[in-house]
Every structure is written in structure tokens, then in C-alpha cells.
Specification:
Blueprint: E1 2-9, H1 14-27, E2 32-37, E3 42-47, H2 53-61, E4 66-74
Antiparallel strand pairs: 1-3, 1-4, 2-3
Helix pairs in contact: 1-2
Length: 83
């Protein structure tokens, strides 16, 4: 699994967050936990397979927002330990 973290310029309200989230879901249908914040300019999601970041960036920028950076890091589910 991978976590995608993005810095996005141009989000001004919760509707902007929804537009970015929709663009992410359309570009990567299997994306989970898609979240965006207009206050911090961040978007993130979890995916099973390494994504095509150029296609993701293009999908977001087609909605009118500017992607400043995209980082993809390995992600492991946090599990509760049994003591």
C-alpha cells in the first residue's frame, strides 16, 4: 500500500476540497481515505498499487487547481497489538 501526499494551491473552501477529492477518485478509482484541506493546502489518500503521479497531477490541474508537489510513500496499516 502507498500513501499519496500532495500540496495543492487554489483551494479556498470546502467545495474546492470536494472538487479535488472527486478528481483524485476519478484518476484513481481504488483510492481510499481521500482527504483534502483548503486551510493547509494538503490532499492525501491511500492506494493499493503505486499510482501514476503524472496522471493524478493532470486530473487535479484540469479542475483548475495547481499541484505544487506529490510524494508517494509506503504505507502500512496500524494494527492494535495484543498484550
Amino acid at each position: 500500500m502507498y500513501q499519496i501526499l500532495m500540496k495543492i494551491d487554489g483551494m479556498a473552501c470546502s467545495m474546492c476540497e470536494a472538487h479535488v477529492n472527486d478528481a483524485i477518485r476519478n484518476a484513481i478509482p481504488q483510492a481510499k481515505r481521500v482527504k483534502s484541506s483548503h486551510k493547509t493546502g494538503d490532499s492525501s489518500c491511500i492506494v493499493e498499487e503505486r499510482p501514476d503521479t503524472q496522471a493524478l497531477k493532470k486530473a487535479i490541474e484540469e479542475t483548475g487547481y495547481h499541484v505544487i508537489s506529490v510524494s508517494v510513500t509506503p504505507y502500512e496499516k496500524k494494527r492494535f497489538g495484543i498484550f
